[in-house]
Amino acid sequence: MNKKLIIIILVVLSITGLQVASLNAASRGKTPAYGMFYKANELFREEKYKQALAQYEQILALGIESGNLYYNIGNAYFKAGRLGKALSSYEKAKGLIPNDSDLKANNTFLESLRENPVLANPPVWIISMLKIFGGYFSIDRLSVILVCIYWLLFLISISAVLMPRYRARLKKYIISGSMILLLISCIWAVKFYDIHSNSYAFVIETVTDVKFAPSAEATTYFKVYEGTRVTVIREEGKWMRIKTPDGKIGWALRFALDKV
Hints:
Layout: H1 2-28, H2 33-45, H3 49-61, H4 67-79, H5 83-94, H6 101-112, H7 125-134, H8 139-162, H9 167-196, E1 199-203, E2 207-211, E3 220-225, E4 229-236, E5 239-243, E6 249-253, E7 257-259
Antiparallel strand pairs: 1-4, 1-7, 2-3, 4-5, 5-6
Helix pairs in contact: 1-8, 2-3, 3-4, 4-5, 5-6, 7-9, 8-9
């Protein structure tokens, strides 16, 4: 019985190893962009921020994304005096490298520079806690953790069937593992919903008028300032219907916003 279990575990680990190797091979296929990335970094060090941004944008145009790339783009935009674009780039980087300490520090500093910051209405405390935990992981990493826990529970369940003498002990692990799986599934679901059901943007103009209707002649409802993060409800021509963190809704010109 034990030999069979060991064989099953080795097969699963082998398949996982092959998948990781294939992912690494795929990422190595993007190395030609490294030269462009290195050149952009050199331009940044020389304080040629606009030229550095042009190089970084060329890398994005190739369909290559990474947390470090968006982080460097954010730094370049900040040095170029574009607070809104910098915060937007940092937000994209946070989705890929959420635990980067330099990114967190820079993002916090830039948020402190915003003029007239808008305070968000507090969400339901359970959702708020799940979002806090989810902030430490990217959606891809959470998916990997879920798959690993699922397969671990599957192997433990098989072990309980194959080894009746250990069934009572293994049952405790199955219950504990199931609770952890449920918790992480909730965190994953909240993060997935937040990413795919809501479209966000950052205000990139110093001051932007938000109208009651999508028309230049419409009455101005309120103003938003550079660096404010808003939810995009709908897009209509050159206008976007947005919602501020404090719940105000109105129409702003598309060019004044940078979608995340």
